[in-house]
């Protein structure tokens, strides 16, 4: 049985989430292509990336050797010599099912496994690994780099994720950190971290609207931030977790395959082409031409690319990012001309065509790319870690959740408790009551989405509040609390206030929602707005009608002695008419019959009330 009637709202509570000041904390950018670890120089109070062999970047590549597992630069070298045992772009699999990523599997050199619609697995040497396990290997390497360079144990960390990562992907990232032996203090959005790295918000007199354009190796995000008096308010966020520099590389490879009429490629050939395509992309950021001779299937192949060809090849991918930017502006309800500054994040933003396209979209904005776009997110994570350690109180982050969260009420309605683009962390409480006499259990079904009916949204979890004392319908007071914590992960609790019976659950979906599903949800919420409202109105009227019929039948049973057979027959007749209207799904007729039944039954209710008062006062003297 579902909970029914909304009773009251409590305002959002934003928590600071600080920890003890003496805790040592580190910032980690767990990237699709490369990962970095950063900390604060406490003499200069500036963040810096920790290096290994004078390099701050650790490739997010894993090689499974006969004796051990290698992560980083040495593993990347194995992509060509031993591609079947070398993994990359693991981040794209985080929190995903097989069906979410099967279309992209032809771009990978490793085998992904359908784990019965749960989290996807990767098969290596007859062993099966989840993306969480694989990501933990990368995090362990970063932990080792930090420990060696700082000469201390690394435990407490802040890890960044794309702003558009959903609940499951964020939880998967946290779990990977835990598996690596890390205490993950906070999961924060990459665009917000980048803003921190640029020092935005340090000037308490400064007030500006900023766009953070984050085009990494495997993901793209755009966030619109309003920064005032050191407070970062995310007005909107949008993105695609399967869109990034990797797609530039694959587009170049496909261009060469078509150009040279290549029909057969080994895994080693494909990886060599991909790595060469990445090299071409990077060189063409500063040069006008690229050429190289490589060996494909033991034959020399001369591959060339000029900047114009590159721009034509990647234009459709850039156009996808611009479309997403326009969606974010629409969500924030502001014009592109209002953007005063654009922060560039991710190595792919070095491409001149990308920069030009961004400047054209935001004509009045300053394009800020002064900080190394590969390092900027890790640097911001280190600053957030410093904030959490209590070492600075001049900044406050207010991130947002990308989709609405709510629960099912009677009639299959979606009752939204936390709307999309609400601040994170946030908490909201709301009271409900029962719809049936003697109801002792309540099923609480939680959904994510933008439609009016739960059938059109995505269920992310459920639990049952058991042991409510038996009471008449409408008497119990069930308080539901939705809490999105600082990592963007949902916790739901329920308490019957009269008895104190309570239940709590942290909702962790088996796998994440796909990017296309998110886009569809947002688009459909607009396309079907009118029909959704009509459905909701019909559902609400139907629920009201059924409740009225139930109450009237109960009234007749309990007060038969005070009603004539003619009165009962007339009430039955109106209820039958109302039932027919319900079956026909005619909202106007339902509303008309509800009014008719209320009008006809009101005198009887007054008569019963007078009788009960007379009975109660019988034999008593009124002063």
Blueprint of the fold:
Blueprint: E1 8-10, E2 25-29, E3 34-41, E4 46-49, E5 58-59, E6 62-64, E7 69-71, H1 73-76, H2 78-81, E8 86-87, H3 98-101, E9 111-113, E10 121-124, E11 127-129, H4 131-150, E12 156-161, H5 167-179, E13 183-189, H6 190-197, E14 207-215, E15 220-228, E16 231-240, H7 245-259, H8 267-283, E17 289-296, E18 299-306, H9 307-332, E19 341-345, H10 352-361, E20 366-368, H11 376-388, E21 396-400, E22 405-409, E23 413-418, E24 423-424, E25 426-432, E26 442-448, E27 458-465, E28 478-484, E29 490-496, E30 502-506, H12 515-527, H13 529-558, H14 565-584, H15 587-617
Parallel strand pairs: 2-12, 12-13, 14-19, 16-21, 19-20
Antiparallel strand pairs: 1-25, 2-3, 3-4, 3-5, 6-7, 6-8, 9-10, 10-11, 14-15, 15-16, 17-18, 21-24, 22-23, 22-26, 25-28, 26-27, 28-29, 29-30
Helix pairs in contact: 4-5, 6-11, 7-8, 7-9, 9-10, 13-14, 13-15, 14-15
Q: What is the CATH architecture assignment of the largest domain?
A: 2-Layer Sandwich
Q: Which superfamily, in CATH terms, is the homologous superfamily of the largest domain?
A: ATPase, nucleotide binding domain
Q: Biggest sheet: strands, sense, closure?
A: 7 strands, mixed
Q: What is the CA–CA distance across the termini?
A: 48 Å
The percent range for strand residues is 25-35%
How would you sum up the global shape? elongated
Number of domains: 4
- Total strand count, please? 30
Assign the CATH topology of the largest domain. Nucleotidyltransferase, domain 5
Parts with pLDDT < 50 across at least 5 consecutive residues: 1-23, 508-512
CATH class of the largest domain: Alpha Beta
Overall radius of gyration? 30 Å
Structural class estimated from helices and strands: alpha+beta
> How many DSSP H or I helices?
15
Fraction in helix: 25-40%
The strand order across the widest sheet is 20-19-14-15-16-21-24
Overall pLDDT confidence: 80
């Amino acid at each position: 049985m579902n909970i029914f009637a909304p009773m009251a709202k409590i305002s959002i509570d934003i928590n600071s989430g600080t920890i003890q000041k003496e805790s040592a904390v580190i910032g980690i950018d767990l990237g699709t292509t490369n990962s970095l670890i950063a900390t604060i120089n406490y003499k200069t109070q500036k963040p810096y990336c920790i290096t290994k062999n004078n390099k701050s970047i650790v490739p997010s590549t894993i090689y499974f050797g006969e004796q051990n597992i290698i992560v980083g630069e040495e593993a990347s070298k194995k992509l060509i010599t031993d591609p079947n045992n070398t993994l990359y772009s693991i981040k794209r699999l985080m929190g995903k099912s097989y069906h979410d990523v099967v279309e992209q599997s032809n771009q990978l050199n490793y085998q992904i496994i359908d784990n019965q619609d749960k989290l996807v697995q990767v098969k290596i040497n007859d062993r099966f690994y989840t993306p969480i396990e694989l990501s933990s290997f990368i995090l362990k390497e970063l932990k080792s780099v930090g420990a060696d360079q700082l000469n201390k144990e690394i435990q407490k960390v802040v890890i960044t994720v794309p702003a558009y990562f959903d609940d499951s992907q964020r939880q998967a990232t946290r779990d990977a950190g835990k598996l690596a032996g890390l205490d993950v203090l906070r999961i924060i959005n990459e665009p917000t971290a980048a803003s921190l790295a640029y020092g935005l918000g340090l000037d308490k007199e400064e007030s500006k609207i900023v766009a953070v354009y984050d085009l990494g190796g495997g993901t793209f995000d755009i966030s619109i931030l309003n920064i005032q008096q050191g407070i970062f308010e995310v007005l909107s966020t949008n993105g695609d977790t399967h869109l990034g520099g990797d797609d530039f590389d694959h587009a170049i490879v496909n261009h060469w395959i078509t150009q040279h009429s290549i029909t057969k490629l080994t895994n080693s050939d494909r990886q060599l082409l991909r790595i060469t395509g990445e090299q071409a992309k990077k060189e063409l950021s500063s040069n006008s031409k690229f050429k190289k001779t490589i060996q494909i299937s033991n034959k020399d192949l001369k591959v060339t690319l000029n900047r114009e060809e590159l721009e034509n090849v990647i234009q459709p991918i850039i156009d996808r990012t611009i479309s997403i930017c326009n969606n974010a502006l629409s969500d924030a309800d502001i014009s592109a001309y209002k953007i005063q500054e654009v922060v560039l994040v991710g190595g792919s933003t070095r491409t001149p065509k990308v920069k030009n396209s961004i400047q054209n979209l935001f004509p009045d904005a300053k394009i800020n790319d002064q900080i190394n776009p590969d390092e900027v997110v890790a640097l911001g994570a280190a600053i957030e870690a410093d904030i959490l350690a209590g070492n600075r109180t001049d900044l406050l982050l207010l991130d947002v959740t990308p989709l609405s969260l709510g629960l099912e009420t009677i009639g299959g309605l979606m009752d939204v408790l936390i709307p999309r683009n609400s601040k994170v962390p946030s908490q909201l409480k709301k009271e409900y009551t029962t719809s049936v006499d003697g109801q002792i259990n309540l099923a609480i079904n939680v959904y994510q989405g933008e439609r009016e009916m739960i059938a059109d949204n995505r269920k992310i979890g459920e639990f049952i509040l058991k042991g409510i004392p038996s009471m008449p319908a409408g008497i119990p007071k069930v308080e539901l609390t939705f809490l999105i914590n600082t990592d963007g992960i949902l916790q739901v609790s329920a308490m019957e206030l009269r008895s104190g019976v309570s239940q709590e659950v942290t909702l962790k979906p088996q796998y994440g929602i796909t990017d296309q599903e998110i886009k569809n949800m947002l688009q459909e919420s607009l396309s079907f707005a009118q029909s959704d409202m009509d459905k909701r109105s019909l559902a609400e009227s139907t629920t009201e009608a059924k409740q009225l019929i139930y109450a009237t039948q109960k009234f007749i049973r309990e007060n038969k002695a005070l009603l004539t057979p003619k009165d009962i027959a007339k009430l039955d007749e109106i209820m039958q008419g109302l039932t027919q209207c319900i079956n026909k799904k005619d909202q106007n007729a339902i509303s008309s019959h509800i009014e008719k039944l209320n009008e006809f039954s009101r005198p009887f209710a007054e008569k019963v009330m007078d009788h009960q008062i007379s009975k109660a006062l019988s034999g008593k003297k009124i002063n």
